[in-house]
Predict the 3D structure of the following.
Amino acid sequence: MKVRQVIMGVACAGLVATAIYASKAQAADDIYVPLFTYRTGPYANSGIPIANGMHDYLTMLNERDGGIGGVKLNVEECETGYDTKKGVECWESVKSKNPTVVNPFSTGITLQLIPKASVDKIPILSMAYGLSAAAVGKDFPWVFNPPATYWDGLSMIIKYIGEKEGGLAKLKGKTIGYIFLDAGYGREPIPLLEQLAKDYGFNVKLYPVAGKEMQDQSSQWLSVRRDRPNWMVMWGWGAMNPTAVKRASENGYPMDHFIGVWWSGSDDDARGGGKAAKGYLALNFSGLGSNYPAIQDIKKYVVDKGKSQVEKDKFADTFYNRGVYNTVLVAEAIRNAQKLTGKKVVVGEDVRRGLETLHITEARWKELGFPGFAGPLTGISCADHSGHQGAYMQQWDGDKWVKVSNLIEPMKDKVEPLLQDAAKEYVDKATGWPKRTEACDKAM
Amino acid sequence: MFYREAGQFKTSYASDQAIFPILQDRIGIAVILVAAFSLPLYANDFILNAVMIPFLIFALASIGLNLLTGYTGQLSLGTGAFMGVGAYACYKLTSIWPDVNIIVWVICSGFFAAGVGAIFGLPSLRIKGFYLAIATLAAQFFLEWCFIRIAWLYNYNISGAIEVPQRTVLGVIVTGPRATSETRYIVVLAIVVAMTWIASNLMHGRIGRTWMAVRDMDIAAELMGIRLLPTKLMAFAVSSFYCGVAGALMVFLWYGGAEPAVFNINQSFTILFMIIIGGLGSLLGAYLGAALIYILPIVLRFVPEWLGIPIHAATVEHITFMIVGVLIVFFLIVEPAGLARLWSIGKQKLRVWPFPY
Amino acid sequence: MRAPDTAPRARVGDVLLSVEDVSLSFGGVKAISGVSFDIRQGEIRAIIGPNGAGKTSMLNVINGFYHPQQGRITFKGRTRAKMRPYEAAYGGIARTFQNVALFRGMSALDNIMAGRTLKMNVNFFWQLLRYGPAMREEVEHRRVVEEIIDFLKIQEIRRTPVGRLPYGLQKRVELGRALAMQPELLLLDEPMAGMNLEEKEDMSRFILDVNEYYGTTIALIEHDMGVVMDLSDRVVVLDHGIKIADGTPDEVKRDQAVIDAYLGVAH
Amino acid sequence: MDILYSIFIDPFVQMAQAPDLFVQTLWDGLVGGMLYALIALGFVLIFKASGVFNFAQGIMVVFAALTLVGLHDAGVPAFLALLITIAVMFALAFTVERVVLRPLVNQPDIILFMATFGITYFLIGFGEYVFGGDPKVMPVEDFGLEKGAYNIKMLGGLVSLQKLDIVAVIVASAMVAGLGVFFSKTRIGRALRAVADSHSAALSVGISLEQIWVIVWFAAGLVALVTGIFWGARSDVSFALEVIALKALPVLILGGFTSIPGAIAGGLIIGVGEKLAEFYWGPLVGGGTDAWFAYVIALVFLLFRPQGLFGEKIIERI
């Protein structure tokens, strides 16, 4: 009896203490950067390298530069497990601590948080994921999805295919298969895909993969064998990717005609397929390998000092660098915010302005220690929160990813009308959606 | 000492049939209700948004499942999907008739869930126990697939998710991002309290007795004139009604939007844990279970911070999993009838205090 | 106990239930073959026989739990080949069980209240509110139940979950639950099994009182011959699913087939 | 009319036109079904001997495979890693019996069922804590298994049989046969059956319940290890594998909870059925039917034959 009562007592005390703790305001002498990460759950394989990259770059700034503008960054991970419920809980728990920006790293969580962003005055940086329509800054002043939206990505892939076929006109009569995670994330590109199919006269075959079935996929790939599409495009995430790559090679699908979006191109995704996966293509917009001064700094200041959770052989792999890319944007936005406001310790409202004035030229990338790491990010404005920047194609050579194309620019003319329509539809459906009142800053 | 029934004599069967026959219990409930309704006065956003609102919604869903599993003895793993039916029904209703009071729609969405629940309850006539549980899995996965595949349900949104539109009741914003946490909390609390009261009424009357009769000894119940199929279907319907309303509340007053993955099998499991840990066949148990399973991990997240131990967020998550697992086993060993039984044992002790028995 | 030589009671009336040529088998195993007998209004009818004679199966057939492959059952003038258990209950047949089949999670009071289910009909809406008609109905039936509780002298255990009661009391609560249905025909499956002498005497008294007080017709299965002979007006004897004798206790006692099959051999 | 054609005629036309694909579908279904059956086998073993519906079987598959790969990645030679993993599974069985089952003996089924949820949660947390959440590649070559496929030209097309799948089918069949012999011929096996029939009967012939529980949980752990190796080889070893275990539940319904041949037959029916349905009929409803098809088969089946394929009709007594 005693034990039970003690336990109940402890639980109650814990609850009360949580209340007291959570209500305490955060001391405002550092810049608070919460990272929504997932190192657990079925999508952990994609989540872990990204979490490491984000964490390590910011830690490196603290170690090397003493933070940004002389103010320490308070980096704190909140584990979401890719679960919407926990994502919302993370949002609530960081909200009172003056967060600068939130990176949800899950399309599902992003969708939940978008309406909250403007109310709670916290910008959301959903880097090349989330709601494509959020690129329309007029309607979504608090949401950013640089460097490109899913629709941009799809148009780049179609462009690449067209190039290989000898011109977009040659796509006529061809069949393109689309295998995707059967959720909002995988379904979003479909309208554009269907429109492009109409415009260029190719056929589309859809192969949905339920989240629960993503480690099996044998029926989908059997259907691929039957339909013999000329090209396969994949919108996969988590454990779906390596399985798809394996099934493709087992079913004898030509790997160099199989293209993944940038979220299907991590080292782990292809590694499972091993040598057989050679030729698999994926989009990417962040640099490969560790051959950049800033990445070397991460190694020197963070990894070698044991301040990182990354495994040695997974340092600077594709998704790690993707995480680094994400936090470079965060750091730049914070710098911009400091310049714009003159404040040292910036909060969400300031960083929103900083994000809207993001402008990273080739020279700036070099200055940051990332020469040639990524294409310039110069398209962001108050109206355009994505930038519609290009990405390049990478190919798996059996051991590692190799860059095989220059930057492919998206078909902005096809994407933009769709974005505007989608944004309008979203705003119309969400009755009472706030009009943009935030002023627009000049880019620096 | 203070918990004595001496001197409280019942002079009518009506007062003896009351739900809380003992004065102290009535006082206790009144105090809790007052405290709950005045919570927004002294609690912050985090407590309301991330602790209390979810807790109440889970408690409601647990009551729903408890009506079916705890009171009627039909094991169901389809809770998540039935919640989804409620959420999507509410979304469709308010997009077709936006001017109707949203609270009316939240309640109405329960009827859709009830209908779907009753259909998937049909196999319960022929199958029982784990077999029935697996049959309800069919409901879970089939409905989940429908939520993804039937675009009409989410108004053909490109994201495949539903976003809660802003709705006002009597000029106060109740749903949508601009609804304050205080408003949402009060609305959720009022609905949950009212529905708990109704569930308690049902369970103390004829319907509750027939359900428990079916649970305890279905053959004897049938030989006493209780028709099994209508009784079980009604339990499925009422239970799904509760789950449906909980689902609608979850999306409209907590998340503010949802994609189908929200209503997945893990949701069903979580709620099943809650009623087992809390106590099968106890409304109080639904609350206790929801508190333990939902709030404990949140508390655990903060523990290392208080103690000043630097520990990775992911490690906390792993440890939380382990602790929850151990706690489930621990509670099952210590008191298989759940927290509610612990509570009633405690009350019994108080009643006879200072004597041990 | 009642003297066996009491004159035949005038209260016994017309045939209430008759079983004609009933056969029942489970996948080739014959449980009952071609049994016919009747039960008259107001009598106490015993069904006896050695283990495996098909007595419980017979009760199950009577209240519709088993469906005989052959034969007819006429209850209150209506003949049926098949009857759902709840139809039997609506018609006024109640029963107790060989192994106590109480609702273990509920209190004694609730168990007996559950027996009133058929008589309660206030609609769902009022049930939700537990107010007005629902509450009036609840109280009204509570009054009836309290009478039964007084009658069976189980006042102190009203609120006790039946799972915690001793066996004898459980049997008594089960009788109370059946009585709460105010049946015309009460089927008792070994009401005194496993009881000591004192409990048996109590139970016998309750059975007689029920019969006299409420005028309920009773059919019972019992092993204790003394009790059977004392209580019943007529006895039907089954052996291996076949009826071997039917008559007053005295007739049955003298029947050679019965003595051979049962009394002489088994006891 | 079109819709009727595409439901009732077109799929069969397709089967006739491309028999090689039909054979391939059957084979894929067979392999998938065999792996479902292996998971179901783990359930059956434990249910048969202890009446416990072991929800943790799925996570045991992941845990076993993770332990194996984790050890291997840490530099332990393959076969030593295998031995250590077997030892770990034994330790797990022993601990489960001591810590969970023994204190819960004689509790209702649902309580024991819930306790296995507790075990599941614990193993998820523990496994991720020790081995990390990132997926691992199963080093099949180090166990002497070959990757690659036999491509057989037949029926005017090509049918490709993965070598690993062939091995999986053989090993699974061997395990089933072995378990069958174990249950019918050996002393412990017969003891297990005695326990299944009646706990007190088992005690009266001098068999310790505790030992038997350790043995069946250990056996289920071994089955989990084998399952984990083959599923892990088909995709990667990660926690996402756990959800596949749910597929074993409809298999159990078809096969009955206590029948080993039932588990196999059920697995094959579900495996082949869902592949055929998705391949030929799935496109009609937009695909993705394999998420629920198995459960709906089980549901329909239950309505007509609640006792499963090999179960006996239950006569209710009172």
Observations:
- The CA atoms of residues 147 and 260 of chain B lie 6 Å apart.
